Every structure is written in C-alpha cells, then in structure tokens.
Write the structure tokens for this entry.
Amino acid sequence: MHQFDIEALTIIKFPDPRLRKPTRPIEVIDERVTRLAQRMLALMKEANGIGLAAPQVGLSWRMFVCNTTGEPGDAQVFVNPRLTNMVGSIESEEGCLSIPGVTVKVRRAAQVTLIATDLEGRLVERTVGDLLARCWQHEIDHLDGRLIIDRMSEADRIATRKALKQLEAGFARGRAAGRT
Ligand code: ZN
C-alpha cells in the first residue's frame, strides 16, 4: 500500500473525484486502521459532523465513523460494513461535510440492519432507526461513491445549482494552484 501521513489527512470536498471511487474491503485491522479511525473521529468532531467515511479523507477504504450525540462514548467505527434488511421509507433533510453549504431532502429506509467488523475484529450486527439509520445509509453511500446530490429532487437540483457551481469553481482553482 502507498505511504501517507494519517495525521495530515483532511476532509476533501465535492467535486474531488476521490469521493466517487468505490472502496476496497479492509483485509487486516492493524494499527494503521485504528489510527485512521481516530483521525477520522477527530476531523468529524472538529467539523461538527455526525458521520465521516474514508473516501471523505481521500482513501478508498471500506470504513466509516459516526457519532450522532457528540458524547465520546457514542463514537462508532465500522469496518467493511454492509446493510441488510432495510425497512420503511422516510424523507428528511441531509447535509454532507464534503458538500458544505448544501442541504437536500433525501428519502431513506426508516430502519436498517448493519453488519460490520469493529476495531477489535469482532463481527457486529445492529438494527437501528431514526437518525442513526439515516447516518449509516449516508456513510454507506459514500463507500459506494454515492453522494446526497445523486438522490435529490428536481426542486433541490435547482435550489443547489449555484452552491454546487461555486464548489466546482473552488475545486478548479485549488487544482490550478497545485493544492490538490
Ligand atoms: Zn457525507
């Protein structure tokens, strides 16, 4: 695997193409994976987010972190997660740390079951509803290269056009300046 400095990772923004790359399963949960999880939890907290997936720090690794309450004890790390048993359907507003300034309505399952591995290598299976179910579905979307703007209505498409254009222009400027 390529070398990189975990402490130097930051949250990347739309339309960075790394947000669109499908992720690969993590084969070994080693110290590097644990350090990445800690770094992602810190970045998420700093940005006042409730979830962060590895593609959002530029890595095609199949893992995400989340914490819907902000309490340290509620921090969760899921390695190689997948959803099963999606039940019901609810539409609600969502934002994304990689698409600042954009909020769109997204229809999601009301209840989901997630199967994953935790940092100790144990298999976990949990069924949740409400905000946690929404958060997990949002993060799994990231792991498949999908963003909330792929799921928005025509009305939201029109309402967010300007903000998305500005993000695109900002990304192009950063790239021209050699920042990405
Ligand atoms: Zn997101």
In short: The two ends are 20 Å apart (CA to CA).
